[in-house]
Design goal:
The protein is α+β, with helices and mostly antiparallel strands and about 425 residues long. The strands form five sheets. Strands 1, 2, 19, 20 and 21 form a five-stranded antiparallel β-sheet that branches. It folds into two domains: about 5-80 and about 370-425, no CATH class; about 80-360, 6 Propeller (Neuraminidase). About 15% of the residues lie in helices and about 25% in strands. Mean pLDDT is about 80; it is low at about 20-35 and about 65-80. Helix 1 packs parallel to helix 3 (about 55-70). It has helices at about 5-15, 35-45, 55-70, 375-380, 405-420, and strands at about 80-85, 90, 100-105, 110-115, 125-130, 145, 155-160, 165-170, 180-190, 200, 210-215, 225-230, 240-245, 260, 270-275, 280-285, 295-300, 315, 325-330, 335-340, 355-360. The longest helix is centred in the N-terminal third of the chain and has 15 residues, at about 55-70.
Length: about 425
């Protein structure tokens, strides 16, 4: 095989193996589905330390994983499948003594939109943007989106579309402030280098006479999540904010009637500032419901597919949430970084705090022995084809409801970091 072919070979074998629920002796699969002694011998041969290249080593481990499929059982206990890193403040270039009301990371992770009442704006709160050349560079000095976008009132909670050409946000209805409540608005541009259009009210049925704010557009542009106040039509319900979603068939269609995310997700208090993951299966939001760490916490609900119901929300815990206010979550497109606002100690100032970020890492040390090794690989393969949270780490970091090739690929990326020697300079 060519140097880049072993991983493809391993994936092909995995696909073939998925067709068999038990060992079968067929001439067409000789050398793949064998008895235990043959498999043991093959694994020993494959694991020979005389490896020729980094690509070949990856292929070896993929093949080892496949062969282990036919001899392992499901004898391991599940535990949490992700951990958070240490939250870090984005620093004084972005943060300061002023208030911040919402942040949104772009899909290429090179632009961060946020709301601030810092000097140099046009109203109470304005929309600002900071950029960086690469994801490894520092954020540059923020720039105001200008008077064409920002009003004399409060532009808040931005959400940028996947293509970077539509920006949703909330503001008061121009010309009616303060009599009217907050609505959801949008601006568009032809290219990322072009100027933004004048704001357009998203209109009914998304907006109504109550308050509608904190929009968040899905990756495909077909779902708009937002918070709305007093809209349930239940005379006995308090007029707190609930999470809603409006959908459309194509991006050229009008929005349909919004649907409440229901009592499983929404509480009797404030549920607001949604952030939907790129695959549409995870929804982060802020809430002051019971069970939190402070005034407001960040919570998460999930679903197996977009056709399934949302699960009961879980609090992200004391690493992300503090005894202060933790607000306005925004998840990166790859699900590996959560941006949020927090007034926790260690910041630079305003009432609503600073913008922070925290990494989200899948747990690949399945047996908790401090190593990422073959033992963990065998555990993953033991749950192949099952809905097992312990090993359901792909797509990173929360999985998709089944242990399969996606999880194997994520595991191998971490195994490779810990176990693979550096490639010779001539191979880089």
């Amino acid at each position: 095989m060519e140097p880049d072919e072993p991983p493809k070979y391993g994936r092909t074998i995995v696909s073939l193996l998925e067709s068999f629920s038990q060992v079968r002796y067929l001439p067409s699969v000789a050398g793949i589905l064998e008895d235990t002694c043959q498999i043991e011998r093959r694994i020993k041969m494959i694991a020979n330390p005389d490896r020729k290249s980094r690509a070949q080593s990856l292929g070896v481990m993929l093949l080892l994983a496949v062969l282990a499929c036919v001899v392992l059982t499901n004898a391991y206990a599940a535990k949490a499948d992700f951990i958070f890193g240490t939250p870090t403040n984005l620093g004084p270039t972005i943060n300061g003594p002023d208030d911040l009301l919402g942040a949104c990371i772009s899909y290429d992770r090179l632009a961060l939109y946020f709301c601030s009442d810092r000097p140099g704006g046009y109203g109470g709160y304005d929309l600002w943007m900071t950029t960086r050349p690469t994801i490894d560079d520092d954020w540059r000095e923020p720039v105001n989106l200008g008077p064409n976008v920002n009003s004399q009132y409060d532009c808040m909670a931005p959400s940028i579309s996947a293509d970077g050409l539509t920006l949703y946000f909330s503001d008061y209805d121009y010309g009616k402030y303060p009599a009217s409540s907050v609505d959801i608005w949008m601006v568009t541009r032809e290219t990322k280098d072009a100027a933004w259009s004048a704001p357009v009210n998203v209109g009914q049925p998304v907006n109504w006479e109550g308050g509608d704010n904190s929009p968040n557009i899905s990756a495909d542009g077909l779902s708009l999540y937002f918070a709305s106040s007093g809209r349930r039509g239940d005379p006995g319900a308090p007029a707190w904010y609930d999470l809603w979603v409006a959908t459309r068939t194509t991006t050229n269609d009008e929005w349909g009637a919004p649907e409440n995310l229901g009592p499983t997700v929404n509480s009797q208090l404030i549920d607001s500032c949604p952030s939907i993951s790129a695959d549409g299966l995870l929804l982060y939001f802020m809430s002051d419901r019971a069970g939190g760490q402070g005034d407001f916490d960040i919570w998460m609900t999930s679903r197996v597919t977009e056709e399934h119901d949302w699960s009961p929300p879980v609090n992200l815990g004391p690493v992300v949430n503090s005894s202060a206010k933790d607000l306005f979550p925004s998840i990166s497109v790859n699900g590996s970084t959560l941006y949020f606002c927090s007034s926790r100690p260690g910041g630079y100032g305003g009432f609503y705090g600073d913008i922070w970020q925290v990494s989200i890492e899948p747990v690949v040390d399945f047996n908790s022995d401090g190593n990422i090794d073959t033992d963990d690989l065998l555990i993953l393969i033991g749950y192949w084809g099952q809905n097992e949270p312990l090993c359901d780490i792909g797509p990173t970091p929360f999985g998709d409801g089944i242990v399969d090739i996606k999880d194997l690929e994520v595991f191998m990326s971490y195994w490779e970091k810990e176990n693979m020697p550096e490639a010779p300079e001539e191979e880089l």
